[in-house]
Specification:
Layout: E1 7-11, H1 15-25, E2 31-35, H2 44-48, E3 86-90, H3 94-106, E4 113-116, H4 126-140
Length: 141
């Protein structure tokens, strides 16, 4: 999926961890954008600056109404808070992706949930992505 510039959306991450990640990525041309509050319910593609993805920040209390086809409705998984650090990588080259994963593997920044922006998940919000990643992890355990 085409984005304006390489970005990592950082959900539920401590400010110090965001700073460590930014410092480790210096010189790679990747920005790190913390996502908080109502932004957690905005479409991933919109937050990442993906071409052709539009949206607005949802009104408070509207969580989970974006994708009934995923079986997510108001009060369901999309309304649940993101409980652990999560990143969404968008627009990274293979080299940049390898560097990010190496940094995370070294353990200086702990991130339990990781994903790449795709055509499929671009319309999801952060809460929906976290719920899906948690389900995948449970299936693999």
């Amino acid at each position: 999926m085409k984005v304006k510039k390489p970005v990592i959306l950082a959900y539920h991450m401590k400010e110090a961890d965001v700073k460590r990640l930014e410092d480790a990525l210096q010189g790679l041309g990747i920005s790190v954008q913390p996502v908080t509050g109502r932004q957690e319910s905005a479409p991933l593609g919109m937050l990442a600056g993906a071409e052709g993805v539009r949206g607005v920040l949802p009104m408070p209390g509207s969580y989970g109404r974006l994708s009934p086809s995923l079986g997510i409705h108001a009060g369901g998984p999309a309304g649940a808070a993101i409980a652990e650090p999560m990143i969404l990588m968008a627009g990274l080259t293979e080299h940049q992706l390898d560097r990010v994963l190496a940094i995370l593997h070294r353990g200086s920044v702990k991130v339990g949930l990781k994903a790449i922006l795709t055509e499929t998940n671009a319309s999801w919000n952060g809460r929906q992505l976290a719920a899906e990643l948690q389900k995948e992890r449970e299936r693999l355990s």
